[in-house]
Amino acid sequence: MDKKLSEQIKSFLDFLDECQKLNSMAYNGVGEEDKQHQDLLHAIEFEHNSDEITKLGMRIHQNRVERRVYKDLFEVTDPVTQFIRDPQNKKALDQMRQLLGKVRKVEKRHENRVYIPRIKEDDSHGQEDSV
């Protein structure tokens, strides 16, 4: 095993946390891009210069591309986020965080383990004294 058991558990929990962060960021990103889209549409509505309208059209294109990236990221991370939010799963994940602490404690104890012999060997190496 290349990684400690605690590192593997932590990696999984970190993955779940990262999915939640990405999901939230993507959700906000879609909202921001939607607002930007409306601003650009209004700018086109009131613009009379065809060169400026063309530039605004290119900005709308880029806006839609960026929105798609956020939306795709939201869609792929949302099932994980919903899984985490489910009360039953939330309880299990809290227990998993406690498990991580217990495993780390055992691993730490193993790192500092020292064996103390129970029988002290003497110089006679098992030879009995003759009387």
Description:
The protein has 131 residues and is mainly alpha-helical. It has one domain. The chain is 79% helix and 0% strand. It has 3 helices and no strands. α1 packs antiparallel against α2 and α1 crosses α3. The two termini are 56 Å apart. The model has no long low-confidence stretch (mean pLDDT 92).
Give the % helix. over 70%
Average pLDDT: 92
- How many separate domains make up the residues? 1
Helix and strand run: HHH
Q: Given the structure, what is the number of helices?
A: 3
Shape: rod-shaped
Instruction: Tell me the structural class.
Output: mainly alpha
The whole-angstrom Rg is 31 Å
Q: Count the strands?
A: 0
Proportion of strand residues: under 5%
Reported for the largest beta sheet, the result is: none
C-alpha termini separation: 56 Å
Uncertain segments are none
Describe the secondary structure blueprint for this structure.
Layout lengths: L4 H42 L3 H36 L1 H25 L20
